[in-house]
């Protein structure tokens, strides 16, 4: 009888290391709350550099040796799994799911890029009117004398005049500011051997002729049809799933908007959030839930949400628990602190005020405040932070002050 050979401790440790790396990548790809309220440059966070280096080390130094040198010791199915992860997973983690920029010469063509531009469309990148890199030299001979003249990209290339005098816009053309050339968007996304989809077109002397020739080609028209069909979300097979996901996303965004409004008002007044309980309808549930109940009396959307998701208990999503508003408080506090630091740096001159006061647990806290003149000419005083257990000696307090100034990069 022949059975599967048991893996050695070395091989088990390598498999456990690989599993940890995959879990860390999956966690990093999860969305955060603040991503729903910012203009994102990426739908999913890229893998940090140090993680990629660790993965490459595991990829280059571990698995090829396991599959080659220890082939007889490792079961065949495990070796196949390692090879698939080695070849298909790690080299491509940071290539996909990144929103491409406006310059077509810098696009990384993949399924995500194609879906993104098919749904959202693309810009022709001519708003800046900076066509300096499109400069191309041309040599002509007149009576045996060679002269050099230059041509640039012109906005007239982006429209065509029909025989009846009607002018139509060539929406498929895009200008690349980095290379000074023009690309055909649909052909660049879905492939074409034309120069409009490979290196970019810049022969301005024959621009009208070549653009017209390309726009009438069968490959160009086929790519336009592909782009329109792919961008038509209502025609997709997974239309119901897409609609359901988008509906859910909009619903929770509207819930979070109301939560943010309550957090802003309570924190600006310095009021407490929590009460003795966290139940909707209880008189001792605190100011946060009380404010939500008050809004729900005049807001049918929030009223329905509290009836459906109120008092769900742990493990259920409601976005009205203390964990949610504490995250928002941290996000807002960082934003306020950054704004204060920017105003202090812009004012150039500022003074500081520090004072030690024991809290309710009889622990001294050193409050650090700055005073400066804002851009409106008004003197303002802002609180920066608390410093715990500094001591009453002059050296200790001076070192604490210098550490805060260094931490926020304030030039004293």
From TrEMBL:
InterPro entries: DUF4371, Znf_TTF. The lineage of its organism: Eukaryota, Metazoa, Ecdysozoa, Arthropoda, Hexapoda. It comes from the Eukaryota. Residues 157-239 form the TTF-type domain. This is TTF-type domain-containing protein.
């Amino acid at each position: 009888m022949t059975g599967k050979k048991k893996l050695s401790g070395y091989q088990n440790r390598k498999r456990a290391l690989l599993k940890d790396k995959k879990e860390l990548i999956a966690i990093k790809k999860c969305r955060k709350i603040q991503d729903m309220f910012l203009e994102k440059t990426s739908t999913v966070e890229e893998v940090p550099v140090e993680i990629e280096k660790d993965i490459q080390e595991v990829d280059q130094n571990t698995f090829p040796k396991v599959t080659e040198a220890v082939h007889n010791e490792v079961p065949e199915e495990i070796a196949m799994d390692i090879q698939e992860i080695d070849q298909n997973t790690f080299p491509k983690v940071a290539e996909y799911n990144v929103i491409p920029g406006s310059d077509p010469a810098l696009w990384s063509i993949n399924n995500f890029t194609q879906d993104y531009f098919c749904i959202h469309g693309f810009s022709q990148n001519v708003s800046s009117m900076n066509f300096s890199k499109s400069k191309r030299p041309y040599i002509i001979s007149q009576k045996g004398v060679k002269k050099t003249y230059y041509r640039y990209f012109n906005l007239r290339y982006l429209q065509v005049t029909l025989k009846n005098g009607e002018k139509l816009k060539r929406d498929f053309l895009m200008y690349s500011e980095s290379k000074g050339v023009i690309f055909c968007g649909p052909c660049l996304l879905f492939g074409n051997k034309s120069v409009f989809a490979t290196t970019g077109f810049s022969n301005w002397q024959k621009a009208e002729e070549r653009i017209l020739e390309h726009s009438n080609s069968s490959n160009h028209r086929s790519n336009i049809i592909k782009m329109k069909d792919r961008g038509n979300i209502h025609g997709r097979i997974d239309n119901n799933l897409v609609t359901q996901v988008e509906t859910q996303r909009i619903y929770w965004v509207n819930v979070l908007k109301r939560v943010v409004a309550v957090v802003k008002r309570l924190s600006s007044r310095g009021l407490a959030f929590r009460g003795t309980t966290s139940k909707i309808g209880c008189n001792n549930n605190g100011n946060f839930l009380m404010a939500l109940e008050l809004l729900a009396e005049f807001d049918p959307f929030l009223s329905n949400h509290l009836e459906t998701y109120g008092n769900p208990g742990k493990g259920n999503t409601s976005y009205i628990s203390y964990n949610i508003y504490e995250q928002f408080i941290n996000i807002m506090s960082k934003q306020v602190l950054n704004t204060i630091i920017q105003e202090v740096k812009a004012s150039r001159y500022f003074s500081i005020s520090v004072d030690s006061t024991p809290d309710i647990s009889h622990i001294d806290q050193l409050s650090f405040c700055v005073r400066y003149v804002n851009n409106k000419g008004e003197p303002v005083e802002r609180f920066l932070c608390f410093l715990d257990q500094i001591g009453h000696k002059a050296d200790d307090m001076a070192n604490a002050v210098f550490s805060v100034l260094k931490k926020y990069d304030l030039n004293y």
